[in-house]
Amino acid sequence: MKKWTKLTALMLTAAMALTACGGSDAPAEETAEGAYTVGIIQQMEHGSLDAATQGFQDKLTELLGEGNVVFDYQNAQGEQTNCTTIATKFVSDGVDLIMANATSALQAAAAATADIPIVGTSVTDYVTAGVVDSNEAPGRNVTGVSDLSEISAQIDVLLQFCEDDTKIAVVYCSSEANSIYQVELAEAYLKELNRDYAIYTVADSNDIQAVMTNAVAECGAVYIPTDNTLANNMEIVKNVTVPAGIPSFSGAEVMCQVGALSTLSIDYYDLGVKAAEMAYDILVNGANPAEMSIEFVSEGITPKYNAEIAEALGVTVPEGMVAVEAAE
């Protein structure tokens, strides 16, 4: 009944707009009666997640119409307890849908409700996160978009800057399920290539300086997956790797903009757009998240490099790579 009430309200709003010959007398920013309420939990503030949230809000507003959706945006500032508190509040408020941006946010939302539809984004593997039964058939109130690009292709980009005997440091935060999943894939591929490598973990941002210093002392290149803790501290990574003359690869473009030499770029704004399209299908068309397979971005994935860091390291950039825009 709630869905049909909202649909009726949206149709009435559209009808009134048409009969008004150019628009309603109400201010453009006024929310229509019966508008959808969407709660957004963003795990922390950094460029990739910000872009995904913006893409989601822009696209869902476009699809539903200005004034027909209200966003309750909440940033957890990287704290799992904050994610839980925010998710619990959304359930108490009775939002129509939750958009969970990054893994901890998604896990908190899934733990808070088995009824309210949840759409995730900026999440690498939903099965590893423990929120779906499978990528093909989630089986629960959760679906979404993955930010996973092929790990072997990522490593191949980094290896273009390495000698055959270069030892690769794989660095990630041990508390992030997404990172663990990516590192397992990276290890398997490095073993397949018979490459020398070592694994380095940080527990939180306080460990990064020491761990990175140790990694560059023992290895000749650094691979960092789409790890939120490291993404939020790429300036530290740059300040260690560049003076040491060590090339580094990051799993997200915004990480490359700040502190890595190269990346295989996925557009996080596009991830948010795709998540919005899924949310629209749930809210308006009655799609069931349990039956909506996890989606992946397969187009527009481009190898990129940071021109400033390439110059500082004195490396030759392979043909076909595109320079990232400077960080704002």
What does this structure look like?
It is a single chain. The chain has 12 helices and 13 strands. The protein is an alpha/beta fold and 328 residues long. The protein has a 7-stranded mixed sheet with strand order 7-6-8-9-10-12-13, sandwiched between helices. Strands 2-1-3-4-5-11 form a 6-stranded parallel sheet, sandwiched between helices. Helix 2 links the parallel strand 1 and strand 2. Helix 2 runs parallel beside helix 11, helix 3 crosses helix 4 and helix 7 packs parallel to helix 9. It is elongated and about 60 Å long. The N terminus is likely disordered.
SSE sequence, one letter per element: HEHEHEHEEHEHEHEHHEHEHEEHE
Q: Could you tell me how far the N terminus lies from the C terminus, measured between alpha carbons in angstroms?
A: 46 Å
Helix coverage percent:
40-55%
Q: What's the pLDDT, averaged over the residues?
A: 89
Major sheet: order of its strands? 7-6-8-9-10-12-13
Rg, please?
21 Å
β-sheet strand percentage: 15-25%
Please identify the structural class as seen in this structure. alpha/beta
Tell me how many strands there are. 13
Largest beta-sheet characterization: 7 strands, mixed
Shape: elongated
Unreliably modeled segments? 1-29
- Count of helical segments? 12
